[in-house]
Fold:
Amino acid sequence: MEEKDFALVWHYRQVSPDLAFVRVKELKMHIQDALGDDEVGVFEGQKILEIKPKRMHKGAQVTEMITNAKWDFIMAIGDDYTDEDMFNALPERAYSIKVGVGETKARYSVEDVSEVMKLIEALSEEDS
Structure:
């Protein structure tokens, strides 16, 4: 278990996939039943189950950040469901990049972290 400022997260990276599949669905159902609240959600991510207020997400934070300041360049990179709200909240001129496969609201996608590192290295070389 991980306690965050606004969430509780159960990590199950080291659990066998078969057992995790059963336990996650079961735990999610029990938590949702216990909460019985429309303001708190139970979300599945990459080998995590997260309990948090529905209004607390990266999209809300990004909206606040871009509303309160003028940015010359915006790039957001992410690999989890939690990043989709962020991608959706970004202005059209922003560079949003999904790491990994799957549907996304990001404008671009790369296969893995090594591709992200190549991109960052290329960008930093252009600054030199």
Residues 64 and 89 are 10 Å apart (CA to CA). The chain has two domains: 2-53, 58-127.
